[in-house]
Design brief:
By secondary structure, this protein is α+β, with helices and mostly antiparallel strands. The protein folds into 2 domains: 154 residues, Beta-Lactamase (2-Layer Sandwich); 87 residues, Beta-Lactamase. The protein has 9 helices and 10 strands. The radius of gyration is 27 Å and the shape is elongated.
Length: 258
Amino acid sequence: MSIKRSQELTETCYRIALSIGNSLELISMLKTSLLTYMQQLKCTAAAVYRSEHKDGEIYITNVFSLPYTLNIKEEYAEIIKIIPEKLSYTDMEEFIFKLPVKEEIKKDCFLHAFHLPGFGILALIHEDSKFSDEVMFALSELNSKLARACIACVKNEILEESEIRFRNLNDLLPELVCELDLNGIVTYANNYSLTKLGYTAQDIKKGFSIFNIFLPEDRALAAENFKKALTNDEVKPREYTIVKKNGDHFRESYTPCV
């Protein structure tokens, strides 16, 4: 490979690398990344497949492809012979061992399949010619970053779903439950808290300090207890006089925790 071509390949990989991992939402991230792959490598289509374990087998499903109008299974029927939809664990190991591969799936139309470690498969379709071995190697290195970005998106989705379930459970509790940022601004309050304190979901969006609900003379102690919670010191439940949004008072036990 000439120095000029080597520099061009380095620049191409650099541009692709910059497009990867710019969102924690999987489809949004893949949209940006695959579009850049296609533009930089002059591909006609690109797709990412996810491999998932189920009932003792591994299922390989297409999670995103470009162009949007493309039905990749119909347009490129030969792909199924290279990227199967279902494999045993042993067959999956053998399949991954063979990657990356480049195969002609139509006349003058070539599929390039790469392993995305820990996630699945990347498919790039290029017309007229196959990628060179140098390009295949460079992309295999680059695709590890794409795999990590995909995994991060999946973990973030799981975390968000867990938070939603946690908050749904909290909304059923007949006690004050609030979440704060490190500055003491309330970022979430369960239904009981909103009703009891007289605040609304709009107030949460605007943001207000948790110390607003304490009497002025109790705020220093409340702040000290919050600091103890952040450093994992033991904080015993304490009853405070709580101040509602309209100024009314009521007594309630309140314990900060991390």
